[in-house]
């Protein structure tokens, strides 16, 4: 039995940023971090530089709209790895640096030019640059107090504004908007959610689930306006906002307007390299871009649909932690010279108030649904079927349902839709 | 000193000096114990931080909640009587804990 006392393991000094070659990972994100970690686990011997444009050590984003916003966890809990980990594994971290341009050679090597004036030479490049919030287009959208929620600084700004805030308007009834709205309501704020579309979370869940969240959130005190149109964000006369005027004439008081209306993939560096771009940077099933050398992973990558059995040639861009991790693992194999096709069942989660939503699979293209409800225990599941076979599930406070569907999909099996309609029957027993 | 001993499926043990108040999952992940995956970062959504707790240490832990109990039915390696999700185990000052990690988490 081998016993190691960590972190007393001393690592050799990592080369200083700007002098190391090897792999340069642009984007110290969930996918960038996972790529570096997976490469070291696979025995990758080249130096790795992990470069990010934020002034923080690499951290996890999911809690920003939930536990972190509500002060239930501190910033230290969000940190991916200790400083010792990075040093021991010869991974150089560069914080607060933005890459302005790239000079690349046909063999995949080149120089990345930072806005700080530092150049970063590389023999291989990986882009894990993610996405940025879509900006609200409305009169007054530039006022102080209009905030977004993508990174730690956004969350810190929101926490700074929160104590003097009584009223919040959330623009966008998607995951981020509803998570943040629930968090802010739990902090005692009066919260109104404006959804432009015909239903909540319209891009990610079916109608039954949208309806469920609308009803449940209203029950818990959120004022939700479906089909809402903003006329303007109202100026208090001193550059800050004091409310939101809707097209129907309603005026909502607010000191914070939190915008969560989707993201735009950061494709600029890929375009500068001449990579094929179409709703993200196009990659093959091994996370390699159209130049045959640049690795692209996570939210910014437009890739062959990884769901087993998906139509050949179908492409998808996924915004999720699960995808950032699994896609990075495949990319790590590519960098090791091993060809592994990205395949897996995408899954997602969203915690809103006391409701834990877990989604297994992609429901796009479903032709029928089965509902399982247990109102007494607050459980609610929608199963999605296409041509009689299960393709996805939305499960609220029902982890057994979620995991049964995830397992069935991973095994290429289905779940009988008639028997599944009885919420007392365990889905696990119906996998066939 | 707060300490966690992680023994992997092959029998190798890694000992980590932990911070009181952190979860066993956080202690593992931050220090590079790769047998703990923890995709969801501790929000009780993924069941990839499964550990088996040494029998002698079980009485020192708070009982598990219903969500954790249900999630444990979805772990990659089947649950046992001493199974826990390590994101739900908070370490107290001076606590010493021995856990074994499963062969696979996903």
The number of helical runs of chain B is 2
CATH class of chain B: Alpha Beta
CATH T-level topology of the largest domain in chain A: FAD/NAD(P)-binding domain
Mean pLDDT of chain A: 94
Coarse morphology of chain B: globular
CATH homologous superfamily placement of chain B = Beta-grasp domain
What is the C-alpha radius of gyration of chain B, as a whole number of Å?
Answer: 12 Å
* CATH fold descriptor of chain B: Ubiquitin-like (UB roll)
Overall pLDDT level of chain B: 94
pLDDT < 50 stretches of chain A: 1-15
Describe it.
Chain B: One of its GO terms (molecular function) is metal ion binding. The complex is a heterodimer of chains A (432) and B (106). With 432 residues, chain A is α/β, with parallel strands linked by helices. Chain A is 21% helix and 29% strand. Chain A contains 9 helices and 27 strands. In chain A, the strands form 7 sheets. A 5-stranded parallel beta sheet of chain A has the order 4-3-2-8-20. Chain A has a 5-stranded parallel beta sheet with strand order 10-17-11-12-13, covered by helices on one side. The longest helix of chain A is centred in the C-terminal third of the chain and has 15 residues, at 321-335. Chain A is globular. Chain B is of the alpha+beta class. Chain B has one domain: Beta-grasp domain (Ubiquitin-like (UB roll), Roll). Chain B is built from 2 helices and 5 strands. Chain B has helices at residues 24-30, 66-71, and strands at 2-7, 13-18, 50-53, 83-85, 96-100. Chain B has a 5-stranded mixed beta sheet. In chain B, a hairpin with a 5-residue loop joins strand 1 and strand 2. At the A-B interface, strand 1, helix 2, helix 7, strand 23 and helix 8 of A face strand 2, helix 1 and helix 2 of B.
